[in-house]
Amino acid sequence: MAQGPSPSKKSTAQALILACRNGDIEKVDCLLKEGTSANLQGNNGETALIEACYNGNYKISQALLEKKASVNHKTKDGFTALMAASQNGHAKLVAFLLRHKATVDFTDRDGWTALMLACRRGHVDAVEALLRKHQIKDINMKNQGGSTALILACENGHVGAVEALMEYEISVDSRNADGWTALMFACRSDHIHVVKILLTSKKQCLGIPNKDGWTALMIACKRGRVDIVEALFKHGASVLIALKMAGLLSCLLLIMPILL
């Protein structure tokens, strides 16, 4: 029967991971000089490098990689050092890990990539670092909920991340599991600047409904956002479809002054 790590090995791993969490480079150096493996794991499979990257400890990460820390190790949840650095916006570490052959398209158990994590939190520098290396095979990859990096950036109103993504071959009409597009999320969250950026794409299809039959225009009307409704009209949103499908008095009252 396979045995787990010995108590001494487990405590050493915990000591190294804790030192990385606390940014204690002297303790890390001491443990590594004593021969502690840089690849010891915690209870969830986390390593010292993942902990260091999560907390933005660049020098500690350097020291660990010099001791052959596995740059692409995954926790039991599929989380990597690159995901940790990206999620918390440590762009310098992101670039550093990529130089050390970190795999950019790895996904965790829920289908999230490093790019998705950076976009959800609006870490523009991290997003740009991930995109700059041209190593992402599919910028339109979806997580298990069907969300793309663009959808996540738009949902949270991160203008800089949206602008960075739009410089690449991004699919603006990708839909999540519920049929929501990036534009719909931007409308629902009242992000007018994001809406305007998305509308610059010639591939934007304004008539796409989600699974509940709602279009971006209908969502904007429901939210009472005259500025967003006007922007959608200027780019060809159909009033008739909105009125026919929504049947909302609020929608009619909102659009009539714009049309008259």
From TrEMBL:
Origin superkingdom = Eukaryota
> What parts of the sequence cross the membrane?
239-259
User: Which keywords does UniProt give here?
Assistant: ANK repeat, Membrane, Repeat, Transmembrane, Transmembrane helix
List residue spans for each ANK repeat: 44-76, 77-109, 110-133, 145-177, 212-244
Q: Which PROSITE patterns match?
A: ANK_REP_REGION (PS50297), ANK_REPEAT (PS50088)
This chain's source organism reads Elysia crispata
Q: What is this protein called?
A: Ankyrin repeat protein
